[in-house]
Structures are given as C-alpha cells and as structure tokens.
Amino acid sequence: MAGSPGHSSKAKESRLPRFLMSGGAATALHWLVMALLIGQDIQPSLATAVGASAGLIFNYLMQHAWTFRSGLLHKVAFPRYLTSSAFGWLLNLALFSVLVSLGAATAIAQVCATALVTLVNFLLSERFVFHESRLR
Fold first, then answer.
1. Residue 98 — φ and ψ, nearest 5°?
2. What average pLDDT score do residues 61-84 get?
C-alpha cells in the first residue's frame, strides 16, 4: 500500500528508534564533555552539570530536527522541552526513590526508572513538546 496513511504510519514508527538514538548520543556527549572537563581539573559536579547541559541542548536539537521533524518555532518547542525534561527528572527521582525504599538494588531501581521515564519522555515529546496542532 503506497498511500499516504501507510507512509505516515511508517514515519511515526521510526520515531522511537530515532528518539532512542538521539538520547543515546546526547548521553554520550554529556559523558564526553564531563570527562574532558574533569581531565582539565574541573570539579566533577560542575563538569557533569556542564556535560548534562550540552547533552540537553544537543538532544533537543536532534529531537526537534530529526526525530519529530518539527515545524514548531524554538520559542514554542524549547520551553515545552524544558518542562518535559524537568518532569522526567522528577519522575526518575521519585521512581528510583520508591523502588530503593521497597528494597530494590540500586542498579535495578535505576534501570526500571530509566525505562519508564524514557517511555514517558517519548510520549510527552510526541504528544506535547513537538505536537504542532496544539497551536491554534
């Protein structure tokens, strides 16, 4: 079936792999910047903050341009992205804390929290951050 709906469906299906690749690349950038700064005797907490900021901006640009191919202006999409990111950060902290308090091992708690937060972040990105019909 070569119609538009099939093409549209395929485009939507390819968003999740692109979302995961962009997020992975952003994480790698975070860690690279952090390692380079620590290698220059920058305090680790400052180095990770700078690295995380670089990763956050890179991830936003990749999600906007490549994953969702958004036509939204940055002045609309970026504040939404920051809101979504803050929510994801809080959700990760809450889930991790609950799982650890219930006796889960640290690594297991973080893997579970990361998996759920990744799914929530994808859905928020698709339905809120880069959702263009919300502008009326």
1. -65, -45
2. 97
Residue type, 134: R
Q: Give me 97's structure tokens.
A: 């804390």
CA-derived radius of gyration, the chain: 17
Average pLDDT on 42-63 reads: 97
Q: Give pTM, 2 decimals.
A: 0.88
The mean pLDDT value of the chain amounts to 92
CA distances 27 to 76, 98, 103, 117, 135, Å, are 24, 24, 28, 15, 31
The Cα-based distances of 54 to 37, 47, 57 in angstroms read 12, 11, 5
Q: Which two tokens stand for residue 47?
A: 């180095």
